[in-house]
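haha ok so turns out i had the wrong file open the whole time. this is the CORRECT one, sorry everyone. sequence first:
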Amino acid sequence: MNAIKSMVLLSTLSVLCAQISVSANVDVNNLSENETFGFKITAVNAEEMPEIDLSPILNNFAIISGPSQQTNIQWINGKMTSSRSITWTLMARRAGNLIIPALDVKIGNGVFRTNPISMLVDKKESILKGSNVFIETEIDKEQAYTGEQVTVTYKLYTNVSLTIDDIKFPQSVGFWTENLRVAQTIRFRDIKIQGKPYKVA
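then structure:
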């Protein structure tokens, strides 16, 4: 009986491992060397968060922010599908036809490989090059207990004319988030930093 149970368990584990798949994608394939882009690795039907070594890409790309993690679970026709994803913000170190190579993804005791991605990076000058545009993040407290509200404020500073059509805030890992203020129009006000004029929103 124990032998039969062991065989059933091994068969079940084999089926589960066979269902795991990993993929890599970017939010844009054609950009300038001054621009950042999102890079995401997704593992489907993984029971734990993947472990990824990004060192193979660091010659051509710099990590600007991340990683941020996200877990999604869906029930479709009584069947559960789960996915775990890790996202980074990257920037190309040089122009040209660059490749994000296939990366090893460790999930439990198994190792999977992502698909390679081709990137076309132009040597175009950014329209904001030579001007100051930056974002400042403020929080109202640095320590909090479980369930306590922490307010995060993002301030955009610029000394050039900007048109903002849409705002996507960074993903928060381990936090439940809610927008406290949803402005219909982004309104800038004048400010000076070390005597230099800026507009802030």
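The longest strand covers residues 61-76.
again sry for the mixup
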